[in-house]
C-alpha cells in the first residue's frame, strides 16, 4: 500500500509539469530556488563542523529548528494547501486506516519542502560529526526532527481540510493568520531593541534553552548537548523528541480515521430576498458602487481585517518609540550640555 501511494504521489508530481508553459517555468524557478537555498544552508552547516563555540552553534540550530517546525504547522493553516493526497479521497477503497495513514505520511516526503528539509537535516548531521557517538545521536535526532516536521505538516493540512474547506472559512483563516503575524510585531520590536553586542548571546541562550525542552526544539538540541558533554540532558531531550513523534503519529492516525468517515463540507448557500443594499441606495453609478462596497464589507471576511487593524496599528506604532532600547538610543544621541 505504501508503494502504491508513493507511485501515485510521483505521478501527481509529474502531472504538475503538464500545465501551461508559464506555470511550468514559474514552478521550475521556485523548485530551483528552494533546492538552491537548501544546498546553501547545507554548505553553511558543513562549515560549522569546525566551529569552536559549540554552545553558540547549538543555540542557533535549536532556535532555527523550532522556527522550522512552527513554519510547517502555520503555513498549511494560514495559507492553505491544495492537498491532492487528502485521506478522504481514499474513503471508498476499503483500505485500513493505519495503512492509509502510514502511506500518506511516507508519500509526504516526496515534495520540494520535504527534500529541502532532508538536505538541511543532513547538514546538521555533518555539523555534529565530531565523534562516533555524537554522530550516531545526531543521525537519530535529525531523523526525529524530520519526521516531526512531516507529521506536523500533515496534521496541519488535515485540520485545514476539515475546518477551512469552504471559501468563507479560508478567508476567515487568512484574516486570523494576518492578525497573528501582525501581533508578532511587538516581539520583533523587542528583539530589535536588544543590545545584541552586549547581551545578545545571553538572550539567544535563554530562548534556545527554553525551546530545547519543548517538542519544537528538543530534537535539534540533542546533538549540541552531546557535543558539549551534557549527555544527561541530551538523552532526556531525545526522549522528548521521540515522544513527540509518537504522539504526532497517534494524532495523525486519529485524524485520518476521522476524515475517512467525515464527508466533505459543502458551502451553505443563502437565499436573499430583494435587492439588498442596491435597493436602498440611489440609482446611478455612485449608488451602485456604494451598494457593492457595502455588500462586500458585510460578506467578505477579508474586508474585516482593515477594521480589526484600526485599534492595533496605533499600539504597534507607539511600541518602538516607547521601548527601552529606543530611549537609550535617544539619550545617547542627544547632545550633552
From TrEMBL:
Superkingdom, taxonomy of origin: Bacteria
Keywords from the UniProt entry: Membrane, Transmembrane, Transmembrane helix
Keyword Ion transport carried by entry: no
Transmembrane intervals: 21-48, 60-79, 100-126, 132-164, 176-197, 234-252, 301-319
Annotated protein name in UniProt: ABC-2 type transport system permease protein
Organism expressing this protein natively: Agromyces marinus
